[in-house]
Design goal:
The protein is α+β, with helices and mostly antiparallel strands. The chain has seven helices and five strands. Strands 4-3-2-1-5 form a five-stranded antiparallel β-sheet. The model has no long low-confidence stretch (mean pLDDT 81).
C-alpha cells in the first residue's frame, strides 16, 4: 500500500473516505469512553477513605462521555465537506428549531441542570437515607440513595422498591436526611 493509496482511503470528500473516517472516529469514541469509565472505576477502587463521592464520579463520567461523543461528532462534521454544505443549508432554520427543541426539552434540560447543581452542592451522597415527598397514601417515602444519573436519582426503600425521582424534583422539594437507624414515622 502506497502513501497515495492511504491518503485516498482517508479523503473525507469521497464516500469511502468519509466512511473510513467515521469508523476511525467511532473507534476513538469507544476507546475514550472506555478509558473514562476505567479511570473513574480505578479511582473508586483505590479511594479507601471514601473522600471521592461515587455519585459525583458517576455523574461526571456520564457527562464526560456525552461531551466526548459530541466533540467527535462535531469534528467529523467539520472534516466532511458534504456536511459543511448541509450545515449551511440548515443554518437558516436553526433558530426556529432551537426554540421548538427548547420548549420540548424544557423538563429534560431542567433535570440535567438540576443534576449538575445536586452534584455541585452535594445535599446527599450515595448511601444516605432520605425522606422525600411522594404521591403515596403516607405522602412521603424513605429510601437509601442508590444512584444518580444525568436526569434521575434512584432511592431503594426498606421493602426493596426503587423510587426513581427526576433531579428537578429532587432539587426543588424538601428532603429530610435521616440517620441510618431512623425509620419513617407514620
Amino acid at each position: 500500500m502506497t502513501p497515495k493509496t492511504i491518503v485516498q482511503y482517508l479523503d473525507p470528500s469521497s464516500p469511502l473516505g468519509a466512511l473510513v473516517l467515521a469508523g476511525i472516529l467511532f473507534a476513538a469514541g469507544l476507546i475514550l469512553s472506555w478509558s473514562v469509565r476505567r479511570l473513574l472505576k480505578t479511582l473508586l477502587i483505590h479511594d479507601r477513605s471514601e473522600a471521592i463521592d461515587q455519585i459525583t464520579l458517576s455523574f461526571l463520567s456520564q457527562l464526560s462521555i456525552l461531551a466526548i461523543w459530541l466533540l467527535l461528532l462535531t469534528f467529523y462534521a467539520h472534516l466532511v465537506p458534504v456536511l459543511h454544505r448541509l450545515g449551511t443549508a440548515l443554518l437558516a432554520g436553526v433558530s426556529l428549531m432551537s426554540v421548538v427543541v427548547g420548549f420540548a426539552a424544557q423538563s429534560t434540560l431542567g433535570n440535567l441542570v438540576a443534576g449538575i447543581s445536586l452534584v455541585l452542592y452535594k445535599p446527599f451522597r450515595r448511601g444516605d437515607r432520605l425522606q422525600i415527598t411522594a404521591p403515596t397514601p403516607q405522602e412521603c417515602e424513605v429510601g437509601v440513595v442508590e444512584d444518580m444519573s444525568l436526569g434521575f436519582t434512584v432511592l431503594r426503600t426498606d421493602d426493596g422498591r426503587k423510587i426513581i425521582v427526576a433531579n428537578g424534583t429532587m432539587a426543588q422539594n424538601t428532603m429530610i436526611k435521616l440517620e441510618d437507624g431512623a425509620k419513617q414515622k407514620p
